[in-house]
Amino acid sequence: MNFKVPRGTQDILPDASWKWQRVEKIARSICDVYNYKEIRTPIFEQTELFQRTVGDTTDIVQKEMYTFTDRGDRSMTLRPEGTAPVVRSFVENKMFGYADQPVKLYYTGPMFRYERQQAGRYRQFVQFGVEAIGSDDPAIDAEVIELAMTIYKRSGLSDIKLVLNSLGDKESRNAHREALIAHFSPHIGEFCSDCQHRLEKNPLRILDCKVDRDNPLMNTAPSLADFLNEESSAYFEKVKNYLDIAGIEYEYDPNLVRGLDYYNHTAFEIMSTSKGFGAITTLCGGGRYNGLAEEIGGPAAPGIGFALSIERLLLALDAEGKAWTDEPSLDVYLVTLGEEARAKGFEILGKLREHGLRSEMDYMDRKIKAQMKSADRLHANYVIVIGEDEVNENSVQLKNMADGQQKKVSIDELIDVLTK
Ligand code: HAM
Asked: Does 129 contact ligand 1 (Cβ within 6 A)?
């Protein structure tokens, strides 16, 4: 029988996993500097959590969730995103009672959506996300956006742009909703059955329908921008002002609506502008979600956050021709000749590792030439050669691979020489 990795998923092989670790390291260290703390939530949650927050009429809930009934007859869903679980945990663990508000959290891990596989679109993908919950200060919106941009810049990307919109508050959205219904109603027969269903329940979702994307009514639909009330506009102005202070450029896009229902006010995406990037250019999406905590039974706790896909960040680096090639090299490769030397080498290897030196030796009983080739492939900074003479003299030959210099070093001094 021939087993294959499930469609839409991928194995991250050892020649690539170091890149994933590096992205995570960069993102974690930036979160640390911005005082965000890690939260880890389960990979599955009650299905209803996502229905209520992401929204019944969204593509994610209607078509993309991995939902199953567990042995206790409960409906469970592999998380399609991280915000609802984090806010669920915030409410459940009464984080609204923490002395320091907002509560600033980050997370990373696999998310699951049953989507059509495409370059940059997977059924299991890894998000790195942050959520700042408990404040509606527009400065925190700018902080969250700045944090996301910093992750990309620190990773080496430069062909990116920030796209920004305001979805307004409830009142603004209701006014817009009525206008959308009036706009689409007379022609709703031309739209797909999902859109017909969305018309009354959530007409905003019609705007991000993938089936009816090219219908001319999409372009003439009333824009949310025309329905923002004074308060929402004022809030948006302040967010933009803070972005200006932070020196972050943005492009205003009144059609940016995001594919999840919990958003209001600030909505943003970060896209790759690299020519080499495929059809899907969104690297990161986020926004404000005041009211989400209440929706799931908690107190008012306005929040904002984003999530980015690590897959797409690495693809964007490739597209810009900036793929990382500097895999961390080995500190020492031990070449041993003969059984006694092997035993001595094994002992030294333990000591090197105890001192944190990344080291390796041959376990395939190969000739010296083959061992030297391994040392080369692993980009070892030093090669230690141990033969019969060295065993007898309690010494090694130490070769500096950068300058080719080789010298005899006594085993007792070896660690000192290497760690200096
Ligand atoms: P989202 O826009 O659904 O938002 O996803 C965020 C990011 O996850 C996308 O911009 C994209 O990079 C990545 N992504 C989504 N689906 C896939 C896929 N099938 N394959 C690869 N990458 C994908 C959210 O998930 C929100 N929870 C973000 C957020 C956090 N909003 C506030 N806080």
From this structure: yes
